[in-house]
Design goal:
This protein is α/β, with parallel strands linked by helices and 340 residues long. Helix content is 47%, strand content 14%. InterPro entries: AB_hydrolase, AB_hydrolase_1, AB_hydrolase_fold, Sig_transdc_resp-reg_C-effctor, Tscrpt_reg_LuxR_C, WH-like_DNA-bd_sf. Pfam families: Abhydrolase_1, GerE.
């Protein structure tokens, strides 16, 4: 299952990158605080999660302003900016009515959209979210985390991996830690984290009329389960489902219960047809050298093959994995544990 990447321009002046995957009725996905369309597609766990959502749906997801492939202007990061980005993507993708899903910070964004644009939302799914950011953590914890991101983004990204993905294997942890730093600068990460702590959609929740599913893991370390219950309690007729687990990221830990529940709510079979793409032994050797930063000429010299042959191997990897860049190949290699 491949993804097509395009650009949209928001009313606020941001250029928003969005990706389209699968076929069927549209499902618009609002991610959490950071993201990168290309690198997320290179992480096997995250890609499998998106492919599960896209089986039977046209999945539309996007990088937030200033993150990943999107370009952001200098200015405050606000809920209005989030809504402008979502509006730009929906318009560029040409969808008027769609299922809408928001995860983490994206849950509040999606809830706000569903309240203010009820005619556009068929069904609403909220995962790992909260109605009021100030209730997620004590003030001193919020200040500490934001300060750490600002002063030492490398150390902070490692700490946040512990919080967001405690159940990830060692290779995925390393890959996700790098992924955060590659997705946004420390300045952008701080601005978005501050937005997560200040979001407030409490007064909008009663205005949501779309059938709504709220999903939360019981021991979520980033957003306590009480926050998910508050989201559901505020939305008329919302269904709340608690699932075992402690990872905040939906694609880490026991993922199938999450995707199966969402798929059934959307009117799809609980299981999907996903199959992870693989590489040959030679292609893994080439991927390893790309992860080391080798050029095609250096790959040829290391493997005793012509530079043209090395280039051909790289192109086959990109085609087979639906990758657009060498950085995706490197990220995939790290996330899969390196040498066999």
């Amino acid at each position: 299952m491949g993804q097509r990447i395009a650009m949209a321009a928001s009313a606020g002046g941001d250029r928003i990158a969005y990706a389209v995957t699968g076929s069927g009725p549209p499902l618009v996905y609002v991610s959490g605080w950071l993201g990168h369309l290309e690198l997320s597609w290179a992480l096997p766990a995250e890609r499998a999660y998106y492919e599960a959502l896209a089986d039977g749906r046209t999945l539309i997801r996007y990088d937030k302003p200033g993150c990943g492939l999107s370009e952001g202007h200098d200015g405050p990061y606000t809920m209005q900016r989030e809504q402008d980005a979502l509006r730009a993507v929906v318009a560029a993708a040409g969808v008027a009515r769609f299922d809408l899903m928001g995860a983490s910070l994206g849950a509040g964004v999606a809830a706000g959209w569903a309240a203010e644009q009820p005619a556009s939302v068929s069904r609403l799914v909220l995962y790992g979210g909260w109605p009021r950011g100030v209730d997620v953590a004590a003030p001193e914890i919020r200040e500490h985390v934001i300060g750490l991101v600002r002063q030492h983004w490398g150390l902070a990204s490692d700490l946040l991996t512990d919080i967001f993905a405690p159940d990830a294997d060692a290779a995925t942890r390393v890959a996700f830690t790098r992924y955060q730093r590659d997705s946004a600068s420390a300045e952008t990460a701080c601005a978005m984290l501050a937005a997560a702590y200040t979001i407030n959609v409490v007064d909008l929740l009663p205005l949501i009329s779309a059938p709504t599913l709220v999903v939360h893991r019981e021991r979520d370390r980033a957003a306590p389960i009480e926050q998910g219950r508050r989201l559901a309690d505020g939305i008329p007729g919302a269904r709340f489902e608690a699932l075992p687990g402690r990872s905040h990221l939906p694609y880490i830990g026991e993922v199938r219960p999450v995707t199966s529940m969402i798929r059934r709510f959307l009117g799809l079979p609980g299981t999907h047809r996903g199959a992870a793409p693989t590489l040959t032994a030679r292609q893994r050797e080439v991927a390893a050298l790309i992860a080391e930063g080798c050029t095609n000429r250096e790959i040829g010299e290391r493997l005793g093959i012509a530079e043209r042959s090395a280039e051909a191997h790289v192109e086959r990897i990109r085609y087979r994995m639906d990758f657009r860049s060498r950085s995706q190949i490197a990220a995939w290699y790290v996330a899969t544990g390196g040498p066999d």
